[in-house]
C-alpha cells in the first residue's frame, strides 16, 4: 500500500469541500497515518521495521541531547498552525519549543522535522512534505533513507528556501549544530539491522 491522497470527504456536507484539521479527529485508530496537506487527506500505511528502528533510535539520541527549552516527540503527533485548518503533518520525529506544545499537538512550526522514508511514502516525504515544512518556516528538515542508509539535511536560507547543507551515508557522522549540538550516525540508528 502506498501513501494515498483522498479528495472527497466522508463527512456530512459538500463533498467538494476540503478536509480540515477538525476532520482528522474522526479518523480511525488503525495504525495508518492521517495527514492533511492543503485540505487533501493523505493516508499512509503503518511503517516497516527499519523505519521504526531508525525513528525510535533517533528519538532517543535527540532526546538525550535536547536542551530544556526544546522537546522531542515521535509520530504520531500533529503539527499545524492555529489559523491554518487545511494542513496538519505528523513528522516521524520532531523537535519543538517546549512552551509551544499542547497535550495533543504542536500548533507552531517545529525547529526540526525528520521524515524516515518508507517505500510507500518516499516521494511524498521528499517533495510534498518538504514544501509544506518550508512554507511553515521549519528551520531544519532531515530526510533519512533507512534502506541505503543515507540522510539529507535541509536548512532554510535567508530567502526562506531549503538548501541541502549535508549528505551522509552509512557510518559517516553528522555533527548537527541546529537545533542543538548532536552527533548522528546512521548505522548506529539501525543497530543490528545495519548488518
Features:
three-stranded antiparallel sheet, 21% helix, tt1808, chain A, 195 residues, 4 helices, six-stranded mixed sheet, alpha+beta, 13 strands
Brief description of this entry?
This protein is an alpha+beta fold and 195 residues long.
Notes on the structure:
By secondary structure, this protein is of the alpha+beta class. The protein has one domain (47-194): Alpha-Beta Complex (tt1808, chain A), CATH 3.90.1570. Helix content is 21%, strand content 31%. The protein has four helices and 13 strands. The strands form four sheets. Strands 4-6-8-9-10-11 form a six-stranded mixed β-sheet. The chain is globular and about 50 Å long. Residues 6-12 have low confidence and may be disordered.
Structural class: alpha+beta
Seen as an oligomer or otherwise, the chain set is single chain
Task: Report the principal-axis shape.
Answer: globular
Helix content: 10-25%
Taking the alpha carbons of the first and last residues, their distance comes to 27 Å
- At the first level of CATH, what is the class? Alpha Beta
The total of beta strands comes to 13
Approximate strand percentage = 25-35%
- Number of helix segments? 4
| CATH fold node name | tt1808, chain A
CATH architecture: Alpha-Beta Complex
- Written as H for each helix and E for each strand, in order along the chain, the element string is EHEEHEEEEEHEEEEEH
Strand sequence of the main sheet, in spatial order?
4-6-8-9-10-11
Low-confidence segments, given as residue ranges, are: 6-12
CATH homology-level superfamily: tt1808, chain A
Q: What is the alpha-carbon Rg in Å?
A: 16 Å
What's the main sheet like? Answer: 6 strands, mixed
User: Mean pLDDT, rounded to whole units?
Assistant: 88
Total domain units: 1
Protein name: Putative restriction endonuclease domain-containing protein
Pfam families: Uma2
Domain Putative restriction endonuclease: 24-167
Organism: Amycolatopsis taiwanensis
Amino acid at each position: 500500500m502506498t501513501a494515498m491522497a483522498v479528495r472527497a470527504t466522508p463527512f456530512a456536507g459538500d463533498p467538494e469541500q476540503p478536509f480540515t484539521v477538525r476532520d482528522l479527529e474522526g479518523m480511525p485508530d488503525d495504525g495508518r497515518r492521517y495527514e492533511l496537506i492543503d485540505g487533501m487527506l493523505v493516508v499512509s500505511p503503518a511503517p516497516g521495521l527499519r523505519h521504526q528502528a531508525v525513528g525510535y533510535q533517533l528519538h532517543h539520541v535527540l532526546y538525550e541531547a535536547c536542551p530544556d527549552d526544546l522537546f522531542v516527540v515521535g509520530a504520531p503527533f500533529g503539527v499545524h498552525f492555529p489559523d491554518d485548518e487545511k494542513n496538519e503533518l505528523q513528522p516521524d520525529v520532531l523537535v519543538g519549543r517546549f512552551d509551544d506544545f499542547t497535550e495533543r499537538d504542536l500548533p507552531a512550526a517545529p525547529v526540526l522535522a525528520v521524515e524516515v522514508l518508507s517505500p510507500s511514502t518516499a516521494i511524498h516525504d521528499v517533495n510534498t512534505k518538504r514544501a509544506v515544512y518550508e512554507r511553515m518556516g521549519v528551520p531544519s528538515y532531515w530526510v533519512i533513507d533507512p534502506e541505503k542508509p543515507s540522510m539529507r539535511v535541509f536548512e532554510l536560507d535567508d530567502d526562506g528556501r531549503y538548501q541541502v547543507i549535508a549528505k551522509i551515508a552509512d557510518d559517516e557522522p553528522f555533527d548537527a549544530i541546529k537545533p542543538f549540538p548532536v552527533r548522528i550516525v546512521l548505522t548506529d540508528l539501525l543497530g543490528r539491522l545495519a548488518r
